[in-house]
Amino acid sequence: MLRETPDKKPLGVMIAFKPPPEAHSGQRARFYRRLTGYIDYSNHGKFKYQRAGLLDKLPHINPVDSLIIIRPEDEEDVISLLKQEGATIYARRIILEDEDLEQLSKLP
Question: How far is CA 99 from CA 21, 32, 34, 60, 66, in A?
Fold first, then answer.
């Protein structure tokens, strides 16, 4: 898997996605919860728990809704989850800017 261009510029993966068009609101909620995580309340709101999604475990950039930029080594995990949920996916390798590289080098 390529991590840089021939002239040594670092690469990332840009993924645009949308949930399946036939998905009802519960399926869309499950899709986004698995991807981004959620806050779970118990005992009538007395306790709060942060439930981690896949992106909580990976360094990523989320410039706009339904678009993420990730490291090439994380591509397989993210694409696999999106395919399991039946999402429409558009993925491309991109050349990272210095500030993008800095953000992607931080662990969440």
Answer: 34, 26, 27, 12, 21
